[in-house]
Design goal:
The protein is an alpha/beta fold. It folds into 2 domains: 204 residues, UDP-n-acetylglucosamine1-carboxyvinyl-transferase, Chain (Alpha-beta prism); 208 residues, UDP-n-acetylglucosamine1-carboxyvinyl-transferase, Chain (Alpha-beta prism). The chain is 31% helix and 26% strand. The protein has 14 helices and 24 strands. The strands form 6 sheets. It has a 4-stranded mixed beta sheet with strand order 22-23-1-24, with helices on one face. β18, α10 and β19 form a beta-alpha-beta unit. The protein starts with a strand and ends with a strand. It binds ligand EPZ. Ligand EPZ binds next to α1, α5, α6 and α12.
Length: 419
C-alpha cells in the first residue's frame, strides 16, 4: 500500500486546477442506465471510486469507454444485478438502484456495508421507492426491489439526521420514468443533486425545483442520450483552500465554482484568511495562524460534513478554543486520534470536538481512514515540524485526483512511496 511523506514548513504558492466532482459524476454515470442511447460525460475525475462505478456499469452490460476525462456509456441492454465484489468497495454504488428501478422495474444490489464514518442506512431510499409502488426486501445481504409499474407520489425524504443526498438522487432517477408526478419533500439541495437533475433534464426528463427542498418530477415515457460536463468538485476545492491557509502563501484555484463554496469561504474568512473569488477562481492567502472558530456541519448550503476534518486540521494550528459539531455523521472523527499523534489537543464529546489550538504540530506516522480524514492528515503535515507519513493512501486516491502532484505543484515537499 502506497504512503505519502509530507515534509512540513514549505509555503504554498501558485495555481491549482479543480477536478470534476466525484459526488456529481457517480450518480450521473449511474443515470446513463436510464436510456438505451449513448451518453457522453466529460470532466469526469480520474479516481478509484469512478473506476469502480465504471466496472459496475460494464458488469451490468453497458459498454463503457473512457478517454482521459471523458466517459462514453451505452447501456443498450442491461442486467439488473450489481455484483457484490465491486459494490462492497464503494457505498455510492447504491445509486444504481434508482435507474434500474426506473428503467427495468427491478434491481438487486448488495447492501452497502457501514464505513468508518458510520452506519450508512438506505431506509429513506427504500421509503421513496415504495412510495412509487415498488416492493423491497433484504435477502442474503442484497436489497431487491421490484415494481409492476411505478406511479408518481409525494414522499418526504427527511431522516432523523436531515435530508439524504443519494436518497434524493435515487428517488429522482426512479421517478423520471414513472406514470404521473412525483414530489420529493425535504429533498437534499446539494449542487451535485442539481447537476444530476440538469443531466436528466438534458436526457428529456421534466424535473423542477432541484436545489430547493421540494423537487417535482413529471414522469415521461423514455429518455434519450445526451452530453454533459460534470461540475467542479467543491470539496476538493475547499480542501486546497484549507491547504493554502495551513501552508501559508498565496493559492489560486481555477476551474472552480465559487457559488458552491459559500460556507467554506465564510469559515476561512472568520478564521482570519483573505479569500477572493472570480467567475471560476478562488484565491486564498495564508497569513499566519487561524483565529478560533465555532462550526457546525449542516446540509447544503450549510458547512459541509466533507470539509469537517480539513477544518479540524487547520484549527489545531491556531491558539484558543474552537468547537466543531458534526450533525450529519456523528462518528466522523477518525482524524482526531491521528491528529493527536501529531500533537493536537482535541477532546471529543459525542458528536462535538473541542479543539485547543497548539500552534506548531509535529510530523508523525499516521493512518489514513476515510477519504476526508486522510486528506486532513496530509494538510496537517504541510505545517508540522518534520515528516508526516500518511499510510493507506488508497483512501485518498478514492476522492482526490493526484493530490500529491497538485500539492507539489504549489510548492509542498511531498513524496509518494510505492509500497
Ligand atoms: C453523500 O453521501 C456523499 N457521497 C457524502 O460524501 C456526503 O458526506 C453525504 O452525502 C452528506 O453530504 C456521495 O455523494 C457519493 P446522506 P450519502 O444520505 O448520500 C442518513 C465523501 O466524502 N441516512 O446524505 O450517502 C445517513 O446515515 C462522501 O465524498 C439515513 O438515515 O449521505 C447520514 O447520517 C462521504 N437513511 C445522513 O442521513 C438513508 O436512507 C446523510 O446521509 C440515507 C441516509
Amino acid at each position: 500500500m502506497d504512503k505519502i511523506l509530507v515534509y512540513g514548513g514549505h509555503p504554498l504558492n501558485g495555481t491549482v486546477r479543480v477536478s470534476g466532482s466525484k459526488n456529481s459524476a457517480l450518480p450521473i454515470l449511474a443515470a446513463a442506465l436510464l436510456t438505451r442511447e449513448p451518453c457522453v460525460i466529460s470532466n469526469v475525475p480520474d479516481l478509484s471510486d469512478i473506476h469502480y462505478m465504471l466496472q459496475i456499469l460494464s458488469h451490468m452490460g453497458a459498454s463503457v469507454e473512457r478517454a482521459s476525462g471523458v466517459v462514453r456509456i451505452h447501456a443498450e441492454k442491461i442486467k439488473t444485478e450489481a455484483p457484490y465484489d465491486i459494490v462492497r468497495k464503494m457505498r455510492a454504488s447504491v445509486c444504481v438502484l434508482g435507474p434500474l428501478l426506473g428503467r427495468e422495474k427491478e434491481a438487486t444490489v448488495s447492501l452497502p456495508g457501514g464505513c468508518v464514518i458510520g452506519d450508512r442506512p438506505i431506509d429513506l431510499h427504500l421509503k421513496g421507492f415504495e412510495a412509487l409502488g415498488a416492493v423491497s426486501r433484504i435477502e442474503h445481504g442484497n436489497v431487491k426491489i421490484f415494481a409492476g409499474e411505478l406511479r408518481g407520489a409525494t414522499v418526504n425524504l427527511r431522516g432523523k439526521l436531515g435530508p439524504t443526498v443519494l436518497g434524493t438522487d435515487n428517488v429522482m432517477m426512479a421517478a423520471v420514468l414513472a406514470e404521473g408526478t412525483t414530489v420529493i419533500e425535504s429533498a437534499a439541495a446539494e449542487p451535485e443533486v442539481v447537476d444530476l437533475a440538469n443531466f436528466l433534464n438534458k436526457m428529456g426528463a421534466r424535473i423542477e425545483g432541484a436545489g430547493t427542498r421540494r423537487i417535482v418530477i413529471h414522469g415521461v415515457s423514455e429518455l434519450h442520450g445526451t452530453e454533459h460536463a460534470v461540475i467542479p468538485d467543491r470539496i476538493e476545492a475547499g480542501t486546497y483552500l484549507v491547504a493554502g491557509a495551513i501552508g501559508g502563501g498565496d493559492v489560486r484555484l481555477i476551474r472552480a465554482d465559487p457559488t458552491h463554496l459559500g460556507s467554506v469561504i465564510e469559515a476561512l474568512q472568520k478564521t482570519g484568511y483573505s479569500v477572493e473569488t472570480g467567475a471560476d477562481t478562488v484565491r486564498v492567502r495564508g497569513n499566519g495562524a487561524p483565529r478560533p472558530l465555532q462550526l457546525t456541519t449542516e446540509p447544503y448550503p450549510g458547512f459541509p460534513t466533507d470539509m469537517q476534518a480539513q477544518m479540524c486540521a487547520l484549527l489545531c494550528q491556531g491558539s484558543g478554543i474552537s468547537v466543531i459539531r458534526e450533525t450529519i455523521f456523528p462518528q466522523r472523527f477518525m482524524h482526531v486520534s491521528e491528529l493527536k499523534r501529531m500533537g493536537a489537543d482535541i477532546a471529543l464529546d459525542g458528536h462535538t470536538a473541542v479543539i485547543s489550538g497548539v500552534g506548531k504540530m509535529s510530523g508523525a506516522p499516521v493512518m489514513a481512514s476515510d477519504l476526508r480524514a486522510s486528506a486532513a492528515l496530509v494538510l496537517a503535515g504541510l505545517k508540522a515540524d518534520g515528516v508526516t507519513e500518511v499510510n493507506r493512501v488508497y483512501h485518498i486516491d478514492r476522492g482526490y485526483e493526484r493530490i500529491d502532484e497538485k500539492l507539489i505543484q504549489l510548492g509542498a515537499k511531498i513524496e509518494r512511496v510505492k509500497a
